[in-house]
Amino acid sequence: MYYNNATPERFEISVSDSELEDLRRRLAGTRWPDEIPESGWRYGADLTYVRELVEYWRRDFDWRKQERKLNRFHQYRVRVDGVLLHYIHQPGVGPDPFPLILIHGWPGSMYEFVKLIGPLTDPSRHGGDPKDAFTVVVPSLPGYGFSYEPNRARPDLQEIARLFVGLMEDVLGFSRFGAQGGDWGSFVSSCMGLFHPEKLTGIHLNMVPVAPHPDDRTHLSPAEEAFLRGAGHFQKEETGYQWIQGTKPQTLAYGLTDSPAGLAAWIVEKFHTWSDCRGDLERRFHKDDLLTNIMIYWITGAINSSFWLYYQLKHHPWRLGRGERIGVPTGIAAFPGEIVRPPREWAERMFDVERWTELPEGGHFAALENPTALVEDVRAFFRPLRVSG
To answer: Which domains does the chain have, with CATH numbers?
Structure first.
């Protein structure tokens, strides 16, 4: 359908010593801003923590170790409809592995799923049932990480959904498969379910990405009314990044492409605000996890293109039409620290919700924060669909 008959090429991450030396030089020469005394994270990224993180990055962080860890996965690059896609394709180990695409968001990367790939592909080695094995495909979103090509037009959500269907069907040969995602990954998974339902056995989300059409918001439950009242705080206090990334992203990109400390501060503030860390970032994330994700943006120079979906959605929003629903079976893992957390009845206005799980801990970056719970919920949701699909 979209495959250009190019042969997928094996890919290995390899950052030159000169690039790493340039990074260390920039980190050592960081020019720091001031800060209102004792403000912590109130006005943005905490100066004390960012200085600590940058010093760790410069002196102690072992990129080569992380590079080797990532290169243990089977990685490829291929062009689908002219767009370069990087992806991990890790075969499942079991009697009948089920194909599953895992889709990340912003400011994440394919690194978000490193703790899921082993348990999903080889459950028997991780205390699970081999009948639950998945063959896992983890693409980098177009314009992100190792899918990045500079100075190119950027695809929108629907086009990304088509590209990923092309990757799964035409490149990898899966006529039916499942999808899982959070953040932009939940949008893309939903688009795949809406526009390509014949290909999807089901979608599993850890964020509810869209709202019902205004005409379909009648007879709201008390929980829905409470959700709408509470959503105002996030819109007022936590969407500044959306406005700049959605209106003048090019201007922001100069600073974040040139300064690794600036890039780290911009990204790590979101991990602090959007996670279930309760004010202590390293309660959920080791510095190595934070920096490996940041490094993927730094070494590829992809931060500017990663902003595109914010601009595209602000100027050409994708919304469900009146009475329109995503009809493929849907599972939703509701983590308490998620940035937008509607009740089940709100989600059921848009999705065929077959599984809804309230988790006790975890937030927006669920695959890194609480991978065990996410793995178990993915397994449970897709277990009956393996037979029916």
So the answer is: 9-388 (3.40.50.1820)
